[in-house]
Amino acid sequence: MRLVSFLTSLIVLLSFALPWLRPPSGEMTFIGILDQVLTTPHGFEGVFWWLNPASTGSILTFVTFFAGMFLVLLGVFFGILGGRLGPGVGLVGMFLFTTVAWYIYGEGFVDIIGEGYLLGLGGFVAGFVLGGGKYL
């Protein structure tokens, strides 16, 4: 069963190079989003400028979004190492990522979802359902 966690984590890892979001400002891969969150070129006030220029994110929004991205990375790391818990941690991270992006974009979030996001979510769901079994 650990092979399933490994394979699904590789799928999620491959999704990092595909567009996760397609806001009006252009396509954003997971790697690009991580870069924008970590480097914050426009200061804290503009940390979400790449998502929606009209949004004003608070510190709680930023921390939640960063925690979601960290959990996605942690889920991939645990899954590649063969752990059954990896896809579950990744799903929690995807939930936090989605919640913050949905908060910022509202109902328009569904329109900006890219294939990388869907592939990542599908990989974590498959790993959680097929790799966990009765042990979760």
TrEMBL record:
The keyword Transmembrane helix applies. The chain crosses the membrane at residues 59-81, 88-105, 117-135. Keywords: Membrane, Transmembrane, Transmembrane helix. This is Uncharacterized protein. It comes from Thermococcus camini.
